[in-house]
Amino acid sequence: MTAEPQPVRAPGSAAGRARVRWRVSRVGSAIATAVLVGALSACTITFGDPAPTMPAFNEAGAVTIAGIEQGEPLRWDLSAPIDAESIGLGESMDMVRVPDERTNVALTLPDGDWTSVAEQLTITPRHGYVGTINVFRTLSGGPAVHEQLMGDAEVLGFPRERIDRWLAELPSTLDESRVGDPRARTGLHGSNGAVVTSVEISHDPGPGGDERIRLWYAIGPIVPD
Q1: What does residue 169 show for φ and ψ, rounded to 5 degrees?
Q2: Lowest mean pLDDT among 46-50, 147-151, 178-182, 186-190
Q3: What is the value of pTM for the model shown?
Q4: CA angle 25-15-9, nearest 5°?
């Protein structure tokens, strides 16, 4: 009996194509595994606790931004430059989260100390150092603001005659006719040694506008050229 000829399974046949796909699949899987192993060996993945946060005080004992946000008062000596990185300040303005919208501020200037309360606080760097400290607070009533600014003038160098003039002109900004006008603003400028200072006094015009008078202090510490 003559044996029947068996069909030749050419690579183009269904069975041939299946074997080719199987081999390609195995090769592809091996390549993908090698690439994944290489990628994992080239990087480090860390699991567990996050990196420690900035300490409350730097090596020189100055409070950091993290310390202020944890409830420490702002106490800095501005008679010498303060390195921005050492207190956790980056390359742009930092809007400090003030706990309960109130923190005590005590700044040592070249000639005297200035103390205040900050409801809001921002700090801006300059050339790698603390460049500007902005302290915001509100007071009620012209006499209270006048008394506060007269005390500030002793250290921050504000002109006292300008403070008196502001109080004298305050009633005119509270007249009924001023309702709807732009916010009333008055700026004072001073200095203490090489530290530049300023304050903006602002309130809503019209009756009752003096119930919340906002003081925006800007203190410019010494920064090397």
Answers
A1: -90, -10
A2: 46-50
A3: 0.76
A4: 130
Beta bridge partners of residue 210, listed in sequence order? none
Dihedral sign for Cα 224, 109, 135, 146, please: negative
**Nearest-angstrom CA–CA distance, 163 and 142:** 11
Count other C-beta atoms under 10 Å from residue 124's C-beta: 16
Contact 113, 126 (CB under 8 A): no
Tens-digit pLDDT profile for residues 141-182? 999 999 999 999 999 999 999 999 999 999 999 999 999 999
User: Maximum Cα–Cα distance for the chain, whole Å?
Assistant: 130
Q: Which two three-digit tokens encode residue 217? A: 């202090």
